[in-house]
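Hey, resending since the last one bounced:
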Amino acid sequence: MTITRDSLLTLEAYSKIRKSSKPEVIAHRRLRTVHLGEHVSVQFEDEKTIRRQIQEMLHIEKIFDEEGIQSEIDAYAPLVPDGSNWKATMLIEYPDPHERKRELARLIGIEDRMFVEVEGHARIYAIADEDLDRENDEKTSSVHFLRFEFPAAAREAVRAGASVKLGCDHTNYPAHTVIAPDTLACLAGDLK
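The structure tokens again:
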């Protein structure tokens, strides 16, 4: 389903279901999140997570005019996977501000070293921050947007039940984890 202005709830309608629908949204997001080591989490987006994000932005900013609504859709809709890929928000989290500053300086380029590896297939490296101009030589951002573009054979393998690893081979953050079966089953639905 595509996110259009007509498919979104009005501010009033969203306001009525916002609190009651929150536990379901949190559970859905948790299912689609993979932790990599202690400090990196990757939240795989889908139509449901992005729709909620748009509704939240409209609610918080009190946006109700057509142009403003379309602007939010245009900003977030590219984060919905389109059948051949997984799209994700990568968060680098260090609670202590001094440690965060130091580690973000050590992790420059980490977004380009993120990969998924489908059992029996070559690693698929992330295409990071496509629509953003990010040139900072001093540190990386704590938030990155990733797209993992799957070749047809890898997509078929995932849908057929192959195991998948999420990993990073950055010198200063080598880590990988096998994606849990329930999460993988949910993510497999993003691949057509």
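The radius of gyration is 18 Å.

Sorry for the duplicate.
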